[in-house]
Design brief:
Blueprint lengths: L14 H18 L3 E2 L5 E3 H8 L4 H6 L1 E4 L5 E4 L4 H10 L9 E10 L11 E10 L4 H17 L5 E7 L3 H10 L10 H16 L5 E2 L11 E9 L7 E7 L3 H4 L7 E7 H6 L12 E6 L2 H16 L3 E4 L6 H10 L4 E5 L1 H6 L1 E6 L13 E3 L5 E3 L2 E4 L3 H13 L2
Parallel strand pairs: 1-5, 7-8, 12-13, 12-14
Antiparallel strand pairs: 2-4, 3-4, 5-6, 6-11, 7-9, 9-10, 10-11, 14-15, 15-18, 16-17
Helix pairs in contact: 1-5, 5-7
This protein binds one RNA strand of 76 nucleotides through α3, β6, β10, β11 and α9.
RNA sequence: GUGGGCGUAGCUCAGGCGGCAGAGCACCGGGUUGUGGCCCCGGCGGUCGCGGGUUCAAGUCCCGUCGCUCACCCCA
């Protein structure tokens, strides 16, 4: 059997519901802060990452999926998103547009690292970038946005770590002095920027810790750097990280374009999400049919329900009614419609509410004793012509409770 | 890239000193001629990761290899 390659995994239902939840919350919050989505290629010229991230970094030196295409050009599967976003901004002259250019994107990144808990070779990031502003207020807005998303996701214990990496001038001084922490060598402008960031975080009551050892693994960062770590993730505990990168646009041959952004590690975020979020609470109708003519009728009915916006399902395998009812239960149907010879003759189907005897509950109220000692819930006969309206009305009433 | 732990049914795992490959859950069917959960009965399901070696005989012992996993490192 062919298996997925090392470090790459399938994300399966029901887990996919948690991923969708994370992504939909992120989209909502991005919109509140004025961010728009950008979609990017997964492949870029190797040179883009070499120049943006830095040749000496681990990412470029030993972790990229790089190969020659049929023409001989060196291409690389993106190991991060920022370089691609900036490339797209510069290529399409987006920085010329009014105000701060605020963009987000989400998708897979690729790094050839040894897999472990929270670290995969194909991993997913939710990425946020703001171009064209160097005010410390923008740094804080970006951090507030990140915290906003994480809080909406009902996450448990999180710690926000911040630091300032200074500007190239500060870094020169720092290296010359062989100092331990760069933060003590900040020039007056960088120090004032950092102080303002901290002041604003306090005003908005965002708890943070200054972490002088916090550095970013990419060469392009300047001034504000931050990271969010979560409990329960083992050694790979960073859920999000980001910072300011004022020099990158010029490094890539573009104009002076201050920028700041962050990436959320979606794999790790989903890992620490509360278990029950994103559960499927949708109403679902199962149509059980007995015999060929009823089966024909059932398929038509199911399609009719679906066209009207109700999730509906049926069995094509010709199972017994008992088996179909079991299936209805397993699929968490809230109503079962039963169609047999008797119902076809009568022109009315049996509609059976399922929730009163869900496999999740031991509640035997509302059940009446019928022949054979079996318990049966109240079920109603509904004429075919009223069926879809009846179900729609019932389910809408329950949804509004 | 380095080190530790682990690879047996779809899942979780048991298999003493080498001697017929097992359980629970899940799945399918029946008990109930047309009605779900529970219960009872039955059934399906295996390259014991892969390759080699020792042996009359290997899931079990030895060597190699691949994979998973955790950590180092690095990161989000």
């Amino acid at each position: 059997m062919i298996k997925a390659i090392r470090g790459m995994r399938d994300i399966l239902p029901p887990d996919t519901a948690r991923w969708q939840w994370v992504e939909s919350v992120a989209r909502e919050v991005f919109d509140l802060y004025g961010y728009q989505e950008i979609r990017l290629p997964l492949l870029e010229r190797t040179e883009l990452f070499a120049r943006a991230i830095g040749n000496e970094t681990d990412i470029v030196a030993k972790e990229m999926y790089t190969f020659a295409d049929r023409k001989g050009d060196s291409l690389t599967l993106r190991p991060e998103a920022t370089a691609s976003v900036l490339r797209a901004v510069l290529e399409n002259r987006l920085e010329k547009e009014a105000g701060i250019k605020k963009l987000f994107t989400m998708g897979p990144m690729f790094r050839h690292e040894r897999p472990q808990k929270g670290r995969f070779r194909q991993f997913y990031q939710i990425n946020c970038e703001a171009f064209g502003g160097d005010a410390p207020e923008l740094d804080v807005e970006v951090i507030l946005l990140l915290v906003h998303i994480l809080k909406r996701l009902l996450l448990g214990e999180l710690r926000l770590l911040i630091n300032s990496l200074g500007c190239p001038e500060c870094q020169k001084k720092f290296k010359a002095a062989l100092g331990l922490f760069l933060i003590d060598y900040l020039c007056p402008d960088c120090a004032a920027h950092f102080a303002r960031v901290r002041e604003l975080l306090e005003r908005f009551q965002v708890a943070y810790e200054v972490q002088p050892r916090l550095v970013r693994g990419l060469d392009y960062y300047t001034r504000t750097a931050f990271e969010v770590v979560a409990l329960g993730l083992g050694a790979q505990d960073a859920v999000a990280g980001g910072g300011r990168y004022n020099g990158l646009a010029r490094d890539l041959g573009g104009p002076e374009l201050p920028a700041i952004g962050f990436a959320i590690g979606e794999d790790r975020l989903v890992e620490v999400l509360p278990q029950d979020v994103g559960a499927d609470a949708r109403h679902r109708v199962f149509v059980a049919a007995l015999g060929e003519p009823a089966q024909e009728r059932a398929f038509t009915l199911v399609q009719d329900l679906r066209r009207k916006g109700l999730a509906a399902e049926l069995d094509f395998a010709g199972r017994s009614l008992k088996a179909q009812m079991t299936l209805a239960d397993r699929l968490h149907a809230t109503y079962a419609v039963i169609l047999g010879e008797r119902e076809l003759e009568a022109g009315a189907a049996q509609v059976r509410p399922m929730h009163k005897m869900s496999h999740r509950s031991t509640d035997s109220d509302n059940l009446t004793e019928v022949q054979g000692g079996r318990l049966q819930v109240e079920q109603e006969q509904v004429p075919f012509e009223n069926l879809t309206d009846y179900l729609l009305k019932k389910i809408r009433a329950e949804n509004s409770l």
